Amino acid sequence: MKVCLACSAGGHLTELIQLEGAWKAKTHYFVSDRRGNAVELAKREKVRFVSCPRRNPLKLVANLFQSLWVFLKERPNVVVSTGADTAIATCVIAKLFGRRIIFIESFCRVKSASLSGKIMYRLADLFLVQWPENKKFFPKAVYVGSVF
Q1: Domain extent listing, the chain
Q2: Contacts of 137 (CB under 8 A, 6+ apart)
Q3: What is the arithmetic mean of pLDDT over 3-23?
Q4: Which one of 2, 79, 113, 123 has the lowest number of neighbouring Cβ atoms within 10 Å?
Q5: How far is 27 from 17, CA to CA, in rounded Å?
Q6: Which one-letter DSSP state was computed for residue 10?
Q7: Which residues, in sequence order, are CB contacts of 134 under 8 Å at separation 6+?
Q8: 85-105, pLDDT tens digit by residue?
Q9: Is the pTM of this model over 0.90?
Q10: Pick the CATH number of 2-143 from 3.30.930.10, 3.40.50.2000, 2.30.30.40, 2.30.40.10
């Protein structure tokens, strides 16, 4: 079992690291953008860096090709993601290759759904939320409480 942990650097990565007990004993790698805590993480974990799209079409295309290259090189069985835009291409590619996707909606989203959450709700095999209020946006989601 190989696990891909895909997320944007910053808070999304911080949330995914909180779940270390779930992935640490498995073969794993991260997909993130080259910023702050992701660069630090790369000193002790395998991190594959891709472009951060930031709603820029050219950067999105670059992210897509980089994510495809990483996916084909690593061949994960499952992708776990906390979002955001940096991770969406990895999740879409995983779905096209028949892999399982677990998506965890961001802790900071209480009163509204994230854009990545709206996209991933349709793709994820398991969609988890950290606030019971999120069930009104994602009725089929599983409420699991905070990762913190």
Answers
A1: 2-143
A2: 112, 113, 117
A3: 97
A4: 2
A5: 15
A6: T
A7: 105, 109, 110, 113, 141, 143
A8: 999 999 999 999 999 999 999
A9: yes
A10: 3.40.50.2000
